């Protein structure tokens, strides 16, 4: 409906568009109207929920992560086609998922190259309560990476669709940046803002 209103003065007619919807959805500082793409923003919100699942040891995630113990779903990892599919392999012993994880960490300037899920959680839990921009970003990066890798697994397994490593990394970066654009931080470093190409509007006045 928003598209129809903006493009057609509310009469739902076609052929009157003055500007592309992609341009309308750009942030205001980039010349758009700041209207969020609901599908992408939904993924960003889901990533935040995934972090809550990952950081809660008594959560449903603990039950989900042991799917490899079920004999009815035993199979080869659809990402690498080499090792058996399991939680421990998918995060991040799989060659593709590890490459994605390292690529995202390198982009975000995060020193978290371990491929051991337990080691990653221990490190993140050590600073999880902090509200600093760097910590919030690190949590979003982990959550978004897990979400996209899990999504990629299911796309390959059930829909025969495939993305390469760079496409998955770009998707993770896009989700995290979208979430950061909708957040406000009391203080931050210029280096962090330059990495994510964020405007001063992300800082609280």
Describe this structure in words.
By secondary structure, the protein is mainly α. The protein has ten helices and no strands. The two termini are 34 Å apart. The protein folds into two domains: 1-35, no CATH class; 38-202, no CATH class.
Number of domains: 2
How many strands, what sense, and barrel or not for the largest sheet?
none
Helix content: 55-70%
Runs with pLDDT <50, length 5+? Answer: none
What value does the Rg take, in angstroms? 19 Å
Give me some keywords for this one.
mainly alpha
What is the topological layout?
Blueprint: H1 2-8, H2 21-24, H3 38-55, H4 60-64, H5 87-93, H6 95-108, H7 117-125, H8 133-158, H9 165-181, H10 190-196
Helix pairs in contact: 3-8, 3-9, 5-6, 6-8, 6-9, 8-9
Offer a concise description of the structure:
The protein has helices at 2-8, 21-24, 38-55, 60-64, 87-93, 95-108, 117-125, 133-158, 165-181, 190-196.
């Amino acid at each position: 409906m928003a598209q129809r209103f903006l493009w057609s003065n509310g009469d739902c007619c076609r052929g009157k568009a003055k500007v592309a919807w992609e341009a309308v959805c750009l942030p205001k500082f980039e010349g758009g109207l700041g209207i969020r793409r609901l599908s992408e923003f939904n993924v960003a919100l889901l990533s935040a929920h995934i972090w809550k699942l990952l950081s809660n040891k008594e959560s449903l995630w603990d039950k989900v992560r042991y799917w490899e113990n079920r004999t009815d779903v035993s199979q080869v990892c659809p990402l690498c086609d080499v090792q058996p599919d399991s939680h421990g392999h998918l995060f991040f012993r799989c060659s593709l998922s590890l490459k994605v994880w390292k690529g995202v960490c390198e982009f975000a300037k995060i020193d978290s190259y371990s491929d051991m899920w337990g080691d990653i959680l221990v490190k993140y839990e050590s600073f999880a309560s902090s509200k600093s921009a760097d910590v919030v970003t690190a949590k979003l990066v982990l959550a978004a990476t897990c979400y996209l890798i899990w999504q990629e697994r299911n796309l390959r397994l059930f829909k025969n669709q495939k993305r390469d490593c760079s496409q998955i990394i770009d998707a993770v970066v896009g989700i995290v940046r979208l979430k950061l654009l909708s957040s406000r931080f009391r203080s931050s470093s210029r280096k962090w803002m330059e990495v994510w190409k964020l405007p001063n509007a992300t800082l609280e006045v």
